[in-house]
Amino acid sequence: MSAEDKQDGTVGKALSVLDEIASKGRPMRFVEMLAGSKYPKATLYRLLQTLTNQGMLAYDPDRQTYSLGVRLVRLAHAAWQQSSLAPIARRHIDLLSGNIGKTVHLAQLDGGQVLYVDKRNAANPIEMFSQAGKVGPGYCTGVGKAMLAFLPKAQQDRAISQQAFHSYTAHTLTTPEQLRSDLASIKTAGVAFDREEHEPQIICIAAPILSLSGRVIGGLSVTSSTLRHSMADLEALKPALLETAKNIGEDAEHWHFPDKNP
Q1: What are the angstrom distances between the C-alpha of 66 and each of 14, 39, 174?
Q2: Is residue 79 part of a domain?
Q3: Which pTM does this prediction carry?
Q4: Do 108 and 164 belong together in one domain?
């Protein structure tokens, strides 16, 4: 059992089971989960039963599979409204995407990874990995690097230690040293670039969304394809991108969750 499991107890174990099923993107059988589980058979079964009883998982007796439950949908919707930048940033990313005619992503950091919380497609959308709700790597996406670059050193060190450094393309940064060097340049320039580092032919320019005190609260990117645009084309969008990120940061600073009983 890991130190994290010992510290978080049953709740941490249950969440790791939910994460495992969510990462597969499809229903899973018990034997499949058990084969890759760090928990004993009895423990895993007990966790699955509890999660199912609480509506966090749904069990299909015909197929004998577990899938994410509808209670999670309600919780996810509430989290999107209360904890993500998406409701605050919506009008800003709508305006930016409409003005430049390109795909815009809004993201936040989840540990050292990128959680995409909203996306606006241009008139001619480009097929790519990212969409709202997906988690992507921090070290080889423009929006991930933009956020990592502006973290305090201790947080940045921890986030870098959480990166897999898998080589997705010939352009992927595959060592902490390469990433640190890139992050230093990004901190100076104020924007990051994805030069086909995560997906072939997909390029982007990205900026951090900062609070008035300089704390990283999110990231914003404009994405295109090498079949349509060059890196110079994206770099020309830097002023509009930075202005939009600034406006979102200012709105987030002054935003309060609406009181239903004023």
Answers
A1: 14, 17, 35
A2: no
A3: 0.73
A4: yes
Asked if the structure places residue 260 within a domain, the reply is: no
Domain tally for the chain?
2
Residue 62, Cβ neighbours under 10 Å: how many?
5
Which of 24, 25, 7 has the alpha carbon at shortest distance from 35?
A: 24
Reference 194, options 186, 184, 205, 185; nearest CA is 205
191 and 122 belong to one structural domain: yes
Q: What is the pLDDT of residue 257?
A: 45
Tell me the residue range of the domain where 8 lies.
Answer: 3-73
pLDDT at 76: 77
The C-alpha atoms of residue 144 and residue 113 are separated, in whole angstroms, by 7
Query: What is the band of 18 on the pLDDT scale with cuts at 50, 70, 90?
Result: very high
**Angle subtended at Cα 248 by Cα 242 and Cα 249, rounded to the nearest 5 degrees:** 90
Q: Tabulate helix, strand, coil % of the chain (nearest 5).
A: 45, 20, 35
18 in the same domain as 114? no
For residue 261, is it within any domain? no
Nearest Cα neighbor of 92 from 261, 253, 252 is 252
CB 137 within 8 A of CB 113: yes
Q: What integer pLDDT is reported at residue 46 of this predicted model? A: 95
- Write down which residue in 73, 101, 128 finishes a domain: 73
Over range 130-143, report the average pLDDT.
84
Q: Which residues contact 75 (CB under 8 A, 6 or more apart)?
A: none
CB-based burial, 201-223: b 16+ in 10 Å, e otherwise: ebbbbbbbbbeeeeebbbbbbbb
Q: Are residues 69 and 101 located together in one domain of the fold?
A: no
Nearest-Å Rg of the Cα atoms of the chain is 20
